[in-house]
Each structure stands twice: as structure tokens, then as C-alpha cells.
Amino acid sequence: MSFRRHQQVRLQSLGYVATKQGERRRMNAHGKELAGKVAIVTGSARNIGRATAEELARAGACVVINALKAEDLCREVADGIRSSGGKALPFLADVRDQAAVQAMVEATVAEFGGVDIIVHNAASRGRVPIEDMDLETFRKPLETSIVGFFHLVKAGLPSMKQRGGGSIIGVGGLASTLGATGRSHVSAGKMGQAAFVRGLAHDLGPHGIRANVVVVGVYDTDRASGSTSLISAVQDVNVPLGRKGKPEDLASLIRFLVGPGGSYITGQTIHSNGGAYMPA
């Protein structure tokens, strides 16, 4: 047997799969790179959060499905994952409530043994001109995007450290980069996530925990009652790829970042917008 063939056999016996580019990724026997991992995905009853939860489950992760009020939708997503052979736990919790987040993490550890992945997708997306905005309206997206993110990290961190590492993802928005009419409060909250994860990357890197933000462009999603689309808030957005993004587009990016392919990526803000914004 040639040396190269011997190496291929050896790698396969260890559970590695070689890609066309020659990269090697650690897989289990079924090619599910997140097998044995546990993920909490906030705001996962619909749209991008749901697609992300389902994508991580396909990669082998046990997934906690979270929403503020949409109990039926949470159960629907969890049941769908289970019917496909995955493991999922629906859990209603307001991420702004520290006790509720702590209870969700404790339930996750009790059900699945720990926490490896946090995807903070929950958001408040109201559109209010600054002249009409009161303090409570201004504060809500900040508490959801930043304070809620803090609660999740603080609650999940002991388990992540005990398990030897993990991955934290914040889901940002294009309005925080381009600005948008009536969304100064939402933009502030989402931009705050980027600063938060840069600090986390420094603090948690020695523990093998990575933190990144993925930024959503103009996506085709179902809007909740009373919410407004980004394209109505950001005028004249040019998308070179010529289409809106799909929830599955961002879900695939998140799967990559939390998996072995993203093992050397931390502290980054990564855009998924079809070219609508091209940072230098």
C-alpha cells in the first residue's frame, strides 16, 4: 500500500473526511460534524432562527428552541426536528429576564448534559422616528440585543468552560451598518453586539470559546404583526446578487462558524447580504 493510500485509510479510520480542497474535517460516522454538541438558539420559532435550529440539528446538535410567546411554533419546530431523528427542547423565555435565561440554560443542561453553542437571534425590530421615541421604546432593543446576549453568555459560560470550549454567535442587521429611518434604537443594539463579541473573543479565547457576529442583509422572511421590513427602512439598497437572502443562507453560515470549519475564526463581524454592503 502506498504511503498516501495508507494515510487516507488512517484518516478515515479516525473519522476524518477530506474535502475537494484537501481540507480535513472531523466527522462522526454519519458525517454530522456537530454530533454530541448542544445549541441554544433564541428567537427560533420562525424565519432565520428556525432555519438555524433546523440546520444545526441536521449537523447532529441537540437544539433548544426558544421564543418569547410563540409556544405553538416552538413546539412545531421541536417536533419537526424530532421527527427527523434529532433532539430538541422547546422553551419559552424572555432573554431580557436573567432568571428566565438561567432557567432555560439549567433545563438545557438537565436535558442534554451541557451547552456548547449559543446563537442569539432574538431581536426587537420596531420602527419609530427619534422625535416620537420614548425611553422605554429606545431601551427595548438594547435590552434584547445586548443585555439578553449578556444573560445568555453568563448563564452558559460555566458549562462551556467545563466542556472545554464552544461557540457564541450574535445575529446582527444591515441597518446597524448602513443606518435606517426610524431604527436608531435597533441599530444601536445590533452594533453593540459586534463590540460585545470582540471583548468576548479576548476574554474567552483562552478557554477555547469563540464569539462572532453574523450580519443579515435584505432577507425574505415572514414579518411578525406590527414589524417592518428592512427594505422599507433602508432605501435604495442595491444587492449585486439580484435577490433577497433566504433564512437557509444565514443558517448555513452559522453552521460553518460553530463547526470545525470555523475553529480559527473569532471576534469577527461577517456579513451575509448578497453584496449589499462590502466592508474594506
Summarize the structure.
With 280 residues, the protein is α/β, with parallel strands linked by helices. It has nine helices and nine strands. The strands form two sheets. A seven-stranded parallel beta sheet has the order 5-4-3-6-7-8-9, with helices on both faces. It has a two-stranded antiparallel ribbon with strand order 1-2.
Q: Name the shape in a single word.
A: globular
Q: What do the pLDDT scores average to?
A: 87
How far is it from the N-terminal to the C-terminal residue, by CA?
49 Å
In CATH, the homologous superfamily goes by the name NAD(P)-binding Rossmann-like Domain
Estimated radius of gyration? 19 Å
Second CATH tier, the architecture = 3-Layer(aba) Sandwich
Helix fraction bin: 40-55%
Low-confidence stretches: 1-29, 230-235
CATH class: Alpha Beta
In total, how many domains does the architecture comprise? Answer: 1
Question: Going across the major beta sheet, what is the strand order?
Answer: 5-4-3-6-7-8-9
